[in-house]
Amino acid sequence: MNESRKRHLLRSLDAGLRYDGRDSPTKYRNINIEYGASETAEGSAKVTIGETAVIAGVKLSLEAPYSDTPEDGNLMIGAEFLPIANADFEAGPPSIDSIELARVTDRGIREGHAMDLKTLCLEAGSKVWVVSVDICIMNDAGNLYDAASIATIAALKNTRYPEVKDGVVDYKHLSDKKLELQHIPINVTVLKIGNHFIVDPDLIEQSMLDARLSVNVMEDGNLCALQKGGTMPLTTEEISKMIDIAVEKANELRGLLN
Fold first, then answer.
1. Residue 49 belongs to what domain range?
2. What phi and psi, each to the nearest 5 degrees, are found at residue 38?
3. Number of domains making up the chain
4. CA-closest candidate to residue 127, choices 62, 30, 205, 190
């Protein structure tokens, strides 16, 4: 980390300015949500936050359920860091960072009970829908956690079931039945840099974080998941402040999805 650059960043934050010129520590860059970004997925969405671009696609498959949950469908989320998105990303097996991103996104959806897995059951003990979400990072300009969360929720909202004929899934024809969402958990990631708390960091701000807290927030303001990152500890008071910021910003982001 460049210490002189961090000192400059902290002086800017002291003056109420972000590194990219934003005039508030809790101001997001422009956010755009494009539904139906993929023609081959059952549901998809492209989300841009500033220059960060993420695509999430949903595929549905009919499979046997787990033996201990014979009436529940399944959810699987994976993330791919494409080398074209960031010079630090490498081709090959998933990196630790991509695994963490997928798990944070998955935990928010799962613990927020976004879907009732029992509605995915066609035949108890025999056939259930498996919902697979692929998150593709197209350009990394910071704040992948929030972008991936929004893209995943938007893709699930966009999902329609394929036709099923004689037990065979016809992926070329989608039905009018949409995937039901019962809750919309939203992830907001808050960074601590020095004595400052910011949201939606760019890459420079992100590289200088002391601590990171990803907070998944429900519609009523309750929390369903947390993920701590960074090398520095957080006090109880700091965590409370970061959660308050996340709850406030989650309401704004949820409005974009609605």
1. 3-257
2. -120, 135
3. 1
4. 62
- Which DSSP category does 233 fall into? -
Rg of the chain over CA atoms, in angstroms? 19
First to last CA, the chain: 39
Report the SS3 class of residue 199.
Answer: strand
Structure tokens given for 248: 């406030």
Q: What is the pLDDT of residues 55-96, one digit of tens each?
A: 999 999 999 999 999 999 999 999 999 999 999 999 999 999
Residues 171-230: tens digit of each pLDDT: 999 999 999 999 999 999 999 999 999 999 999 999 999 999 999 999 999 999 999 999
Residue the block writes with tokens 């969402």: 181
Segments in the chain forming alpha helices (H): 3-14, 96-111, 144-157, 203-207, 236-257
Q: What is the DSSP string of 22-87?
A: -S-TTPPPPEEEEE---SSSSEEEEEEETTEEEEEEEEEEEEPPPTT-TT--EEEEEEEE-GGG-T
Return the CATH number at 43.
Answer: 3.30.230.70
Question: How large is the greatest C-alpha to C-alpha distance in the chain, in angstroms?
Answer: 66
* Distance, CA of 6 to CA of 12 (rounded, Å): 10
Q: Which two tokens stand for residue 188?
A: 């907001």
Chain segment 91-141, per-residue pLDDT in tens: 999 999 999 999 999 999 999 999 999 999 999 999 999 999 999 999 999
Closest by Cα among 188, 84, 85, 90 to 141: 85
